[in-house]
Amino acid sequence: MTPTTVPGSEPGPLAPGTVLPEVRQTISQARIEAYARASGDHNPIHLDETYARAAGLPGTIAHGMLSLGVLASSVEGWVAGRGRLARLHCRFAGMVRPGDVLVCRGRVGPPSSDPGRVHLELEAITAAGVRALTHASATIEMDRPLGPETGAAPGVARDGD
Amino acid sequence: MALNPTCVGRRYVGAPQIVDGADARAFAAAVGVGDRIDPVPTYAAHYLLAPIASLLFADGDVGLDLPRLVHAEQTFAFERRPHVGEALLPEGTIAKVESRRGLDFLELDLCAKDTDGLVVTRATSVFVIRAGGKPRAATA
Fold first, then answer.
1. Which of A133, A160, B4, B35 is close enough to A124 for a disulfide, judged by CB 3.0 to 4.6 Å?
2. Taking CA atoms, what residue in B is nearest to A88?
3. What is this structure's pTM?
4. Cα B67 from Cα B58, distance rounded (Å)
5. Taking chain B, what is the end-to-end CA distance rounded to the nearest angstrom?
6. pLDDT (tens digit per residue) in B29-64
7. ipTM of model over 0.95
8. Alpha-carbon distance B10 to B108, whole Å?
9. Looking only at Cα atoms, what is the longest distance across chain A?
10. Are A101 and A26 in contact (CB under 8 A)?
11. Is 80 exceeded by the pLDDT of residue A2?
């Protein structure tokens, strides 16, 4: 797996209960347009201000899948090449507008019965407090089972080692 | 219910999708990853969700009211990461249509297989069609 570079994320232990560092990214209209081109989703509610307003929206809005993509990339930054994303889930709960700052949060869930898997509890909100992605979670298949206490894979250096 | 319940089980088979390196990098950049060589996980939106959703949305028999359609929920299960240059075969099936709390729900199961027939990515998308009131368009 190629490690990702996500601003604000640092490799750290993945012990149960660990709160992962927030990742903040600004969702500009230019970025929404770039996502539309890259994903193939050209729904005009994301691209055309007049159309979006006629559809009852306050203006163009970001693709929910763009927010989910940012959240998934945050997960990969937190995992930092120690495993692979095997499952990802969310509900699209709120709108993200151009100029909003999307804040991705994660927390390591309770221990899995499978030591090779880590479950992350996730959410994405805007800096203004709109809950964009809720009921979000990820399952990571670790390259090596985690240690029982630290959540660090054997051989992975930690702060203070 | 505005949705046609007899459409449950309807299957859509998309055109083969070649994983293009430039497209995958553009997608990665859009979700905030600038130095990526292999596709990011949610690139599945490009090779799986987009081609099948376009077929679903063009199917007039289903009864989708697109201006009232909201992408409500998404799940991905990744068996492996696709490789740049490989062909993936996307398909989808309407798994469920139901009405709850005045809203119509459509659940779409999706799958991308490689040319050996092995599953690369599975997904489930849930769309909600608001029954009335002010239109609100899809957020995904």
1. A133
2. B76
3. 0.88
4. 13
5. 23
6. 999 998 778 899 999 999 999 999 999 999 999 999
7. no
8. 10
9. 58
10. yes
11. no
